[in-house]
């Protein structure tokens, strides 16, 4: 992972509504991962979609522990 390939993405925690700045590496392709909120420590599910053609970040969906993304 190279730092120049990271994309900053601002989103709100689905639990406590804290603004988070996530660093996403589009070179990993589309995937699902987890990140803990920096404020309330709750587990956030991230569904990351990356374009197969351009390799650019297309969307990020956040969900709580019980959500199905």
TrEMBL record:
What InterPro entries does its record include?
zinc_ribbon_bacterial
Q: Pfam families, alphabetically?
A: Zn_ribbon_21
What is the designated name of this protein? CPXCG motif-containing cysteine-rich protein
Q: What is the lineage of its organism?
A: Bacteria, Pseudomonadati, Pseudomonadota, Gammaproteobacteria, Oceanospirillales
């Amino acid at each position: 992972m190279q730092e120049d390939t990271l994309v900053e993405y601002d989103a709100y925690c689905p639990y406590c509504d804290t603004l988070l700045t996530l660093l996403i590496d589009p070179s990993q392709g589309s995937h699902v991962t987890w990140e803990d909120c920096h404020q309330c420590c709750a587990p956030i599910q991230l569904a990351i979609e990356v374009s197969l053609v351009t390799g650019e970040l297309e969307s990020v969906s956040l969900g709580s522990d019980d959500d199905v993304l």
